[in-house]
What we know:
Layout: E1 2-7, H1 11-27, E2 33-37, H2 42-50, E3 54-57, E4 94-98, E5 102-104, E6 123-126, E7 139-144, E8 147-152, E9 164-168, H3 169-173, H4 177-188, H5 195-204, E10 209-211, H6 224-227, E11 230-232, H7 254-263, H8 267-279
Parallel strand pairs: 1-2, 1-4, 2-3, 6-10
Antiparallel strand pairs: 4-9, 5-11, 6-9, 7-8
Amino acid sequence: xxxxxxxxxNPRYLLMMRAAVRSLRRLHADARCVCVYGGAxxxxxxxxxxxxxxxVRHTPVIGVHNAPREFHRxxxxxxxxELALLPELADDEYVLYCDSDVYFHQPILGDADGxxxxxxxxxxxxxxxxxxxHHAHEQLDYEWRGRRYVVPLPFPIWTFSSGVVVFxxxxxxxxxxxxxxxAFCVQNLHRIGNLDQxxxxxxxxxxxxxLDPSWNCPPYRADALERARIVHFHGPKPWDTRPALxxxxxxxxxxxxxxxxxxxxxxxxxxxxxxWEAAG
Length: 280
């Protein structure tokens, strides 16, 4: 099974992706990694290729040309919604998508519970350890191929995290389902709050398959060091040691996983991360 990352031109996402790949290959030396990129920066493309990762360039359906300005800072996250469109993944029935800010802590392939044995009807994600929330709209509508569709929003809404997703690409390609979904996304970008994650949760709802929390475990969870397969730096990134915003999340194993993450970097990369840390 291929492991897919998506990034934009932000150098921080490139560095995190490279570190994620290094942590993965310490566990699975022959892991097949793909990076989807929607830009044209030679520096970004060179960085991806230098890591021995397959580079896939894609002109996004959702990008800075149509997304609200507040989403531009992490526009690469929306690329995961479009994986079923990519010719480079046309022969892949399933893929494991991971945000770039992950650290592979325990094996994810090769055993009876490995990612290659997870076969969701549409997609599988772990539930976030947050309280349910209420959305301002009771339903969202959209048009596709001349017909109007309505998507009712349940209450309460339990959020599944899109930081790690097993996608059934074959199912999304079937009957052009992915274009139906993307029509919903484009027409509702101004009505969501939590980026691409909201779009997946709202549209697929009860069709979502629940992943074990070990597949998407923030370092501040008390059992992360023992249980996590994939550590997700949800909230504070490894250099975010100073902002008061993340104080409550820099607990339990955050500093330990930050240390292990820094060990993956070259001296030059550590200097770059230190500069981001100093800038706060």
